[in-house]
Amino acid sequence: MMKILRNTDVFYSVIVFGALSVVAIIAAWIFDDRLLIPVIILCLGFTAVHYATLIFRYRKITELTCNIDKILHGEENISIEEYTEGELALLQSEVYKMTIRLREQQSKLVEDKMYLADFLADVSHQIRTPLTSINILVSMLSEPDMSFEKREQTVHKLYGLLSRIDWLITALLKMSKLDAGTIKFHEERVTMQQLLDKACMPVRVPIELHGQELTVEAEGELECDVAWSCEAIGNIVKNCMEHTPDGGAIKVIGKDNSLYSEIIITDSGSGIASEDLPHIFERFYKGRSSEDKGGFGIGLALARMIVTGQNGTLKAENYSGGAMFTIKFYKTTV
């Protein structure tokens, strides 16, 4: 009882109710002493009911407080749905909503933490491999009896490895900006031919060195962020080049209709393994056919992020002659 009376609201309520009861008893004694006993009985009854109600509500509030404390300390199997009375029910409803929100945020934080840990592990692994090679090559350069030709070849390999690391870091920065939503795509109208020619320009020389044939066919116009779209298309064409044998063919076709602008990129390689298709756009994923290609597994992931960020879709599949990638930029929201 004393524990409940330490609550100031309960204490003042009991005092007020007791004072009213005393006033009622005195009034009954003054006006008609025959009413004294019934009034005393009624006052005691009302006081008992009032005090019992206070005890019940106090216990419910205490129980709710304990449950909230358990939830804040990490317990998940706590239910606070059984409260059904008046103001306490409203409080319970709001606390329940807050609890669900906190649990969702906690779950999201755990997922983000796991994703960050995996991401850092992947980045460390991807950078460690070329750094190990660089370390070996640098130690080779310190040998005084190395011939000029060998030294020149080693320096060329170093430049290649440093370029790979630079490309990886640049791509990761772009992906992080896209993840954070800080990239604003600026759409502009451009002909399909101009877009595809600009996107394929950086890979034309490597394609020629591999003896491959690149064909570009385009018609119509489209609205897109030219720089970012060229990045996405170029990454896909580069991927096709890496998985097409020397002397093979890569074809890029662009066309436009009233619903969407479509870009189809095909190669004459071995296609995509069935077990790799569901994961080909995942960050750092490299299929069995990519083990000896030296890639990082983020070019296609970056391409998909760029396309979807512009209200588009990117799909990979196999056809009779190799792999096929289909980009669609929709003119209305899908």
Automatic annotation (TrEMBL):
The keyword Phosphoprotein is assigned to this record: yes
EC number(s) stated in the UniProt entry for this protein: 2.7.13.3
UniProt KW keywords: Kinase, Membrane, Phosphoprotein, Transferase, Transmembrane, Transmembrane helix, Two-component regulatory system
Pfam families for the chain: HATPase_c, HisKA
EC category: transferase
Record's catalysed reaction(s): ATP + protein L-histidine = ADP + protein N-phospho-L-histidine
Segments forming domain Histidine kinase: 122-333
Listed GO biological process terms: cellular response to phosphate starvation
Cell compartments where the protein resides: Membrane
InterPro entries: BphY/WalK/GraS-like, HATPase_C_sf, HATPase_dom, His_kinase_dom, HisK_dim/P_dom, HisK_dim/P_sf, Sig_transdc_His_kin-like_C
Main location: membrane
PROSITE patterns, sorted: HIS_KIN
SMART domains membership: HATPase_c, HisKA
PANTHER family, per database record: PHOSPHATE REGULON SENSOR PROTEIN PHOR
UniProt-recorded name of the protein: histidine kinase
